[in-house]
Structures are given as structure tokens and as C-alpha cells.
Design goal:
mainly beta, 5-stranded antiparallel β-sheet, 9 strands, about 65% strand
Length: about 110
């Protein structure tokens, strides 16, 4: 039996500037477990990163974390977060840039249960 892990890039060095909101495409995470997220930003951007989840693809809510996600604060950063037991159907990343500019990358890996 083989365990298969999949990688999804939700944003790949997305250029961000000004006061704008960026929302990735939704990803079907049904039959997936053991998620790991990698976030990185380069530049002077400041804003708010969130991971949103949905069971119907229409109504979205922010996923809450025991330790709040680190946020862009005008300096380069790369970090990861692990999540187990995520039982939603869809997932997407949202970034709200409030000032500055740079690039934002968001990707996640999960274990395939199918």
C-alpha cells in the first residue's frame, strides 16, 4: 500500500500591491488528511493571510488556528503550519493587502485517502 501526497499551489509568487484582496481558486479536499501549509512573502507588504473552508463552495468561513497565523508585516518571511483532522469539503487561501508591495506564495500538501 502506498501513501500518496499531493501538492497544491494556491498562489505562486503572486504580485501584490495597494489595498487589494486576493482569493485563490477553491480546492476540493474531500478524501484528504494531514495538511501542511507553506506561506511566503517577499517585499514590503503588510496585510492579513487567512485559510477559508466551505462545505458547499458558496459559504466560506475563516479556519481558526490554536496559534494565530503569522501575518505580513513589511519583511520577508517563510513559514509552515500543520493541520490534522480537517473535515471540510473545500479550502482556499485569502490575502488582504493593506499596504506595501511584494509577492505572496501559498501552497499546501495533503495525504490522499482514495
Amino acid at each position: 500500500m502506498f501513501t500518496r501526497f499531493n501538492i497544491w499551489k494556491q498562489f505562486d509568487a503572486l504580485p501584490v500591491t495597494g489595498a487589494n484582496t486576493y482569493t485563490s481558486q477553491r480546492t476540493d479536499i474531500n478524501q484528504r488528511q494531514n495538511f501542511s501549509f507553506m506561506f511566503s512573502w517577499v517585499g514590503t507588504m503588510t496585510g492579513t493571510v487567512s485559510v477559508e473552508v466551505s462545505n458547499d463552495g458558496t459559504i466560506w468561513t475563516d479556519l481558526s488556528f490554536n496559534t494565530p497565523l503569522l501575518q505580513p508585516a513589511g519583511a520577508d518571511l517563510v513559514y509552515g503550519v500543520n493541520i490534522n483532522g480537517l473535515v471540510f469539503y473545500f479550502l482556499r487561501t485569502k490575502y488582504i493587502n493593506t499596504a506595501g508591495s511584494g509577492t505572496f506564495t501559498s501552497m499546501f500538501t495533503s495525504k490522499d485517502l482514495s
